[in-house]
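Dear colleagues,

I hope this message finds you well. In preparation for our joint manuscript, I am sending the Indole-3-acetic acid-amido synthetase GH3.6 (Gossypium gossypioides) sequence together with its predicted structure, so that both groups work from identical material. I would be grateful if you could confirm receipt.
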Amino acid sequence: MPTIEEELGRRSLLYSLLMPVMSQFVPGLDKGKGMYFLFIKSEAKTPSGLVARPVLTSYYKSTHFKDRPYDPYTNYTSPNETILCPDSYQSMYSQMLCGLCQHKEVLRVGAVFASGFIRAIKFLEKHWRLLCNDIRTGTIDSQITDQSVREAVMKILKPDPKLADFIEAECSKDSWQGIITRLWPNTKYVDVIVTGTMSQYIPTLDYYSNGLPLVCTMYASSECYFGVNLNPLCKPSEVSYTLVPTMAYFEFLPVQRNNGVTSSISVPKTLNEKEQQELVDLVDVKLGQEYELVVTTYSGLYRYRVGDVLRVAGFKNNAPQFNFICRKNVVLCIDSDKTDEVELQNAVKNAVNHLLPFGATLAEYTSYADTTTIPGHYVLYWELSLNGNTPIPPSVFEDCCLTIEESLNSVYRQGRVCDKSIGPLEIKVVEPGTFDKLMDYAISLGASINQYKTPRCVKFAPIVELLNSRAVSSYFSPKCPKWFPGHKQWSNNN
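The corresponding structure tokens are as follows:
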């Protein structure tokens, strides 16, 4: 996305609004620090010599971030050097080490996305022994070779056997439930994005945090920063954002829903003449209506379709507030069916209820439209967290398959039942750690660790091969879902 220097100042302004909003709901945030796991990605250059890098990398490397004046509300446990380290392992290790050393000062924890914060907890689960050794001896592990990182960490790290013993005792326990509040006892909330597909991480975050508030403070993208959440302690399902009209020029394309399903046809980023005539200004949006967000930015994007579908949830004075509903693009398609990510998320959410009696939860998932079979079928890859000792019978996973199919739209079910154009849905259970491997692979190809989100659909052959190679069991829907001929059917082409 094109950007200009002025845009960094505008984004800094939005960041400066977050803590004044939070302090209205959580007092005393100026009395401690935030433990945030923030990362950069190495830069590239375009053929013309322009710097190309992720938007957050651009911000963290700017003087707006690096040379920011001291502010008790934006005081982090991670020194700038640890955030700006391009090696993801060294960056994560050093940030975690600094967070543990300052554990009593931490009042809030977070990352950009829920998935990123959970990855940090998983990192701690794997490397706590090394971290304890560093704290006990006051030295840094030899794998941390970045000199600027070592120097910055040594300003914080002092030999503390008592703290090392405390961390070791907590991390050695059989259960990691509440590990956040156990290690960082003064934490008041978890600051991560848990809207959209990130909502599937809510149970895991609740488990690790003992039910601390999950706060979504802002709404932003690479194209533009949009707005803030003025009621940050609301339930994740009720999060709404108030757009800041000076961030860009916002317009809204009405989205038609039919039988409760948002049309999710993959669309170009530009508007045709008819769509331009349908655009609605920010002041003219209607309560309850859904819109596709269109932006004209100071950096040069003109009437650009962001791809997000928003619903008008209410108003703050006269300012509209929006729920994030979904990305508009299709996730899965075999035939005439078109399944978007919000449909898939809801279907999976319904299915995982079958796992609860067995003490199991869904840690991560993705999907694949397998057209190598005749007919093609949906494949879901599930990584489970097993908190109980009761084996899960195959029939339970078959029930999960059927529940997902029952939860999908009527076009899909017609293809399964009547047209026979779609085969039975399949769930493949994969080994623990599979999705960490998937993320590592994506990062090795150039993805940004700071902005990585697990794809809800995969198509790239090496990724499908990776997932298949780690599958430990496979289950199919035992019968067709319900579908009633004669009911009005909805098509994405209507």
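For the figure legend, we might mention the following. Residues 258-266, 486-494 have pLDDT under 50 and may be disordered. The chain has three domains: 5-236, 238-327, 330-476.

With kind regards,
E.M.
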